[in-house]
Design a protein that fits this description.
about 25% strand, 7-stranded mixed beta sheet, Quinone Oxidoreductase, Chain A, domain 1, alpha/beta
Length: about 325
Amino acid sequence: MRSTNAWVATAATQKLVRQEIDLGPLEAEEVEVQVENCGLCHSDLSMRNNDWGMTNYPAIFGHEVIGRVSAVGSEAKGLKVGQRVGVGWTAGSCMHCRQCLSGDQHLCLEARPTIIGHRGGFATHVRAHWAWTLPLPENINYAEAGPLLCGGITVFNPLVMYAKPTSRVGIVGIGGLGHMGVKFAAAYGCEVTAFTSSESKFDEARDFGAHHVVSSRDSAAIKKLANTFDLLIVTVNVTLDWGALIGALAPKGRMHVVGAVAEPISVAVTPLIFGQKCLSASPTGSPVAIEDMLSFAARHNIAPQTEHFPMSRINDAFERLESGKARYRIVLDADF
């Protein structure tokens, strides 16, 4: 048995408190990781506030973990104590269903999210199934890599599934997800257009690699781009002019949603039919997809733009995230 010091949410919207938690015995296929850094994602905020109605308190959040293996279960494969690894949104899956056996473990109906019914990474130690405990490339910037394990794979996966280096790609929303999407798409070789509602981000979007920048609130400007894009990746969680965005797709183009848009997305079917266009969505990615993303990020020196807080200031970090002031991801550095 091992205990962990953790920052615990005891009730919705309340500040986290530090507690010692008994993790119990290590399961045979589990790996235990001593946390060095952990990204603070908007999903952590949503779970703390119980926005999705699925939080059971007390709860430990944190699902963008970077650390070193501190213990290995008797049946865990391919990992050793001291190895630097990452743990993202998913901490385990059944490993025997059709999705798992097909390599789509992230679509397993029994997948165990790291922060839902599981103790996450805002702690000294976190545990995950060995297949979801991912070795990091040696040449990656470890201290900045945490957000790649959730936000990074979320935008990288649709890019490699639906785009080619010759594609014209639009990234809608230049925030925690979108700024990484611009970096990945530019490194992939695409012609990249950034859509943002904030003019203050226009120059930053170009610095991230965007060739063009358009206001996501300017329907007239979007309509001028009719029949342009092979792929639009929507990273926002707000309602936009969906008709204008669908119209901006080229024939056989795709609008792919990775932002948790609260309201239903209403689009006319006729433009989809006559343009043979698609509307789709996805979560994160499989372990292999995440490893590919990490290798790509290391090869092209891609890292999220981050702000660092010591984990002892976790409540300050939550306040900054909730205020919308973070540019663009927050990383907590372990200081227990």
